Each structure stands twice: as C-alpha cells, then as structure tokens.
Amino acid sequence: MAFAAVALVGCKPDPGTTPTTDMPDWYYTGGKEGTTKNNSSMAFRQPTPATDQAGLGTAFANGDNIAEKDFVTNATGRQHGLGPVYVRSSCQHCHPNYSHGTSVPEGTYDAAHQGNGTLLVVINPATQAYVPWLAGMPQLFGAKPFPAPLDPDMITVTWKTATDEHGNKFADGETYELRYPEVKMPKEAVYVYNQGYRDPDGLLESEGYEVLLENTIGVYGTGLLDAITDEDIIAQYAKEEADGKLKNGLNPAIYKGGMVESGYYKNDAQWGPKRFTYALSRGPLQDAAGANAIWNITNVTRSDRQYHYLDLNGKIYAEYASKDPAVQAGFAEYIAQIDPKKEHSEWYTDDAEANIYAFLTSKTLPAEMSDEEFTQVMVWHRGLAVPAARNVTDEKVLRGKELFTQIGCDYCHRPTWTTGPDEIRDPNGFFTAGDGKLPRHPNQKIWPYTDMVQHKLHMENDIRTGWCRTTPLWGRGLHRQATGDVYEARMHDTRARNVIEAIMWHGYSEESDAYYPTQQFYNLPKEDRDAVVAFINAI
C-alpha cells in the first residue's frame, strides 16, 4: 500500500525535507524522538523516530492502513462491521492525510465528502448539554435495514459575516473579513421524530435546539501530548489561576483551587487532568480521541467495546427503529450475517421488535475489530510524528517569533513542554505500562504551542459552552499542502480562512481572554503583522 510505504520511509530526504544542520531546538517540534523532517504533503503521516527504534514500524504501517481505508458493512472480511449506524466510514474522511478537517462550504452539509471532518453538535441552548435523542457526534448513515438517525441532506450551512470594533480594517488600510457558520436543521431531518418520538423538553418539535459545528484536529503528535505529566499540567492550571491574567479565569468545572470533575466533564473511567478534545473530556490517549473514535465514529465493536454508540439516552433510537416495519422486514437477513451461528437467542424470538431492540442495546456484541488490529491502530495513533518547523533561520520568521512572545500570544499558546517518563496508561486495562506494545516518547522537549487549558473568546456563534482548549499550533501551517483545502480552515469550526482571520477572531469581544494580545497585534505595522503570520505558518 503506497501510503504505508511512504510512512515507513518518512525520514528519507526528498524535495519536501528541510536540512537540519545547526538547527535551533524549536525546529524539533516533537523533540528529537518525535519529529519528522518531512514537510511535504505527506508530513502528517510519518512515524516518530522512537516508533521505528522500538521495532514498531510494521505495526505502525498496518495501523496506518486501517486508518486510511474505509470500513464496510460486511459481516466478515477486511475492516468489516461498519454500522448499524455510523458517523463516517474511515479516519481519512475526517482527517484527510491526518490533518484537521477541511473547510466547510456553504450549502448542504455534505457528510460523505472526503475531508469533511467538521461534525455536527446538537445541543440544548439553555443547558449547553447534548440533546438525548442524538449522539454527541450524531450518526448520519445507516447500514440496511437501519435508517440514518439524522439526514445530512436536509442540513444546510450558511456563512454569516461579522464586523469587529475596528470595522475589519487595520489602521494602515489593510482589510480582513470575519465569518461564522449558521447551521439549519429541520426537525424532519431527525429519524425518531418522523417515527413519532416527542422530546419531553419540547426542544425537538419546537426546533428549539441549536446546531453548531466542531472541526476535527490533526491526529499527529497526540502521543507526545499524552507524554506530558499530570503534575506539569496541573501546575499550569495553578500558575494561570495565581496569575489572574485571564478575564474569564479557569473553567470551574475543571479547576477551582485544584482539579475537579463535574457535569458534562465527568468521566468515571479516567483520572487526572483531561488533555484531549475541545471540551477537555478525554484522556489519557489510550482511552481518548482516537481510541474512542475508531469505535464510535464507525460503530465497529471490539473486545473492550462490545456495544453500539446510538444516542445520549442510549435507547431512544433502539426503541423507534425496533418498531419500524421497514427495519423489521430486513432484520432477519441482517442478523443472519452478524450472528450466523445463532449464539444470541434473544435476537431470534418470534417478536421482531424485541429482537431488534435486544440487538441494538446489547452489551455483548461480537468483536468486529481484533485486539491485534486495535493495537496496530494505537501504535499508529500514538506514533505519528510532528513535522519539523520550517524556515527557522528566515529573518522574517525569527522576527515573528520574537513578536509572538512580545505581544503575549505565548501565554495561552505556551511554546514548549518537556515530556515525562511516558508510562502508558489505559483506564480500560487494554494496554499496560511496560508491555512494549505502544511507542513511548519520554523526556522530549516538544513545541506544541498550547497550555493544555481551556479559555473563552466570546465569538459569534461560539463553541459549545464557550470553553475551548487552546489548540496546538504545531504543523497547522502545512494543512493546505497536506489536504488541498482552499483555505487554512483554522479555529474550531473552520471559520478562519487564514491566520489573520484567526487572530482577529481572538479579539472580537472585549470579554475575550485573548483581547489584549489581539489589540497588540492590531497595532503592529504591516511588516510586523506579516512576520507573526509567517512564524505561525512555520511552526
């Protein structure tokens, strides 16, 4: 497979490789053991040197193969088990070339488009909680005879314009634009509504719910972030609390004089400070973003996840699909493929509705992904390198690096961390420290440009809850090169088409935690603004 072959030779010099003679330490974004020197379109697909040194190159290539290819609805064969309902059919759909998702065009929300990694977020606007009748990441497809829980062809995205206090114009006359998405989803797009379900809160029938967008982030470098110690992250929270520099303080659901867990941030299976997702809801990595997504995006079961991801309630879709005559008509043929030996007698009674409901809510489904395959996926996920910084000796980039610190961007976008001993941790017990199954990246000085903490920007049509983890900036300047995207697709919902727009959104409101540094940027002469942009694109 061509992509896997490229991954295994990622450090071989090619036209997309930067020479490394006398490079500064910030060139090695992932440290010496976590950085790839490849900065071509394949930059995000490379293994860390530590992965190869641990003898895990073949496992990495196999994991890459699984992540790249589509899962299918077959009951047997390669990458079978997609469904019965699902969000996307492969990692590549949401992470093109393992970058973040591509820009969302105006018009019909095209979930099947390769690269559309911007997921729908349907919430109760009063509580900011996910609605119970859809999953947190709503499924948009179904495997026959199961209907999709949500019809993406009925959902539209419109880009609205916003004007800041400067009239979207710098003092020297250079203009910029600010845009944000507005999503419309009629109640008829929701399958269970059409089947007669009525929301006790009345949000569904009154269309009082809110629909937002959240783009995926690049999957590269996540193993390095996982290697930062809990103690160092907690110390960062304590520092920011003591500094008192941020207008909105710290999210009290996460930190209030110490780490806390409550409400929608609670996860009984995990421990320590969370470090993944915008909401900081997942961590460590072995039970976080990729480990979760390879299951709930595809609904492909495995030995530690022998159940399906349906809706927040867990049973609403199952109840209404089990009563659907069309599902009942096709279920016998479907289940004969899933369970040919009839090992689950509860799926073969004379009551079709009970059979379907028992299948959809089962906690003992057969594992469709083998333990070996899951291990290979996690070797790939944990072993993805970060591309080295570019143009690190360029005077313009160096000037931008100096200004990035001078105007205060480095407070939230903390440049560097040093990883700890990187002891593998897994709340599920699937992986254990010392088992040698996964790559490790101990004691590396890394440059992700994030404080691993949430902040508020108070933008138009903001992210759910308003709290958002500081996105790592490393590698993001290569997004268009890696994906062919028309824009850079920055910010949580791809609203920023370039660095300038992303920066100016940070200061759109005086209540933003980043208002002061944004004003500092606004007052820079054009030459210096361009230098900051050049630096951000170089890291």
Structure write-up:
This protein has helices at residues 2-8, 49-53, 57-68, 91-94, 191-194, 203-206, 222-226, 230-243, 289-296, 316-322, 325-338, 352-360, 371-383, 395-406, 479-483, 499-506, 515-522, 526-538; strands at 35-36, 85-86, 107-108, 118-123, 141-142, 156-162, 178-184, 210-215, 386-387, 417-418, 445-446, 454-456, 467-469. It is an alpha+beta fold. The protein is globular and about 75 Å long.
Main sheet specs: 3 strands, antiparallel
Helix tally equals: 18
Question: Structural class, from secondary structure content?
Answer: alpha+beta
Oligomeric status: single chain
Number of strands: 13
Task: Write down the Rg.
Answer: 23 Å
Shape annotation: globular
Beta percentage is 5-15%
Major β-sheet strand ordering? 3-6-7
- Distance between the terminal alpha carbons, to the nearest Å? 30 Å
Helix content: 25-40%
Q: Low-confidence runs (pLDDT<50, min 5 residues)?
A: 1-16
The residue-averaged pLDDT reads 94
